[in-house]
Amino acid sequence: MRAAAARAAEAALGPAPAKRARDKNRPAQPAGARLSLGELDGLLGFHLRLAQAALYRDFTASLAKLDLTQRQFATLELVRANPGASQAHLAEVLTLDRPAMMAVVDRLEQRGLVLRERSASDRRRQEIRLTEAGRDLLEQATRRVRRHDSRFLSRFGRADAKALIGWLRRIHGRG
Q: How far apart are CA 49 and CA 164, in angstroms?
């Protein structure tokens, strides 16, 4: 039955990519062979994505015991640096839409790490503030994130690391 389905698919769609490659007398890639990146190797976005994936994996592992995500850590740090910031301002800096930001703040509030308070000057605005538990957890997380960051920045000299951060700021527009 499987063979019949494969023949029907091949008749409708043409041969599978691996068969087309063999049909053109090109050897198939051996298992475990390193693939050529082709045009990807010269694309900034591709390399930024690979770098981001490596950073993400290490960041996630660094904060796993604290049960914090990158978004949650960034939100806690922004609130520490900007007590009373609104969800809208936090969302803007983190490039999140309002529902996504609300979900992050909801989770932090459920864990007792932040408080929402109505603004005295604008009742429509909710100000976000750290709780004592939020400050304590952020302190622990910051130590771990600094170690995480140093694992990657240690691959560069001080001047190169500073330049890299400057170049990335130019790309994302906050530099």
A: 15
